[in-house]
Write a structure and sequence with these properties.
By secondary structure, the protein is mainly β. The two termini are 26 Å apart. A hairpin with a 2-residue loop joins strand 9 and strand 10. Strands 1, 2, 3, 4, 5, 6, 7, 8, 9, 10, 11, 12 and 13 form a 13-stranded antiparallel beta sheet that branches. It is built from two helices and 13 strands, in the order H-E-E-E-E-E-E-E-H-E-E-E-E-E-E.
């Protein structure tokens, strides 16, 4: 009986179907450094779509509303929006045609587009829980702003400088 329940759970996982974001149980944080202190911005508005078929995530899209990144400091927020060209490119988009599900991981390559610049990046998410119609994924992606032709923001006439590397930390809950 135990093995039948495990098989039923796995079958439910692999036929998960259309992905729907559970925004209340999901979060995304962008973290970086500066010459003064470390900083974080919470992403308040993003969506995840795609589908899970067999051992693959297909047509994954993660769309972030650029002006929903919030640090709690309006000057920092404004500098971030300028850096990612949020007025001209209001959406930051990650897309992947196919990602593999291997054990408790979702792995593969996708394309990240920020401010009109696109780059291939690796995705390596950990599956924290898989309960029937709900799945919790967590992970992080580190990248350099200059790889996307973004000049790291400065303030106070250049005396405060943001570090080039940022880390995007995500904890995503999806349902079907």
């Amino acid at each position: 009986m135990k093995y039948l329940l495990i098989l039923a759970a796995l079958t439910g996982f692999f036929s998960f179907g259309q992905i729907n974001l559970n925004a209340e149980k999901s979060s995304m944080i962008i973290a970086g450094t500066s010459s003064l202190h470390d900083w974080k911005m919470s992403v308040e508005d993003f969506d995840v779509s795609g589908s899970i078929v067999d051992n693959e995530v297909q047509n994954l899209k993660v769309a972030v509303v650029a002006k929903s990144m919030k640090s709690g400091k309006s000057i920092m927020d404004g500098k971030a929006y300028d850096a990612v060209k949020a007025d001209d490119y209001p959406t930051i988009l990650f897309s992947a045609k196919t990602l593999s599900i291997k054990g408790e991981k979702v792995i593969g390559k996708g394309t990240l587009e920020i401010g009109g610049e696109s780059r291939a990046i690796d995705l390596d998410a950990k599956i924290l829980k898989n309960m029937g119609s709900e799945m919790q994924l967590t992970g992080s992606v580190s990248l350099k702003m200059t790889d996307f032709n973004i000049s790291p923001p400065t303030a106070m006439f250049g005396t405060l400088k943001t570090g080039d590397e940022i880390t995007i930390n995500y904890d995503i809950s999806i349902t079907n």
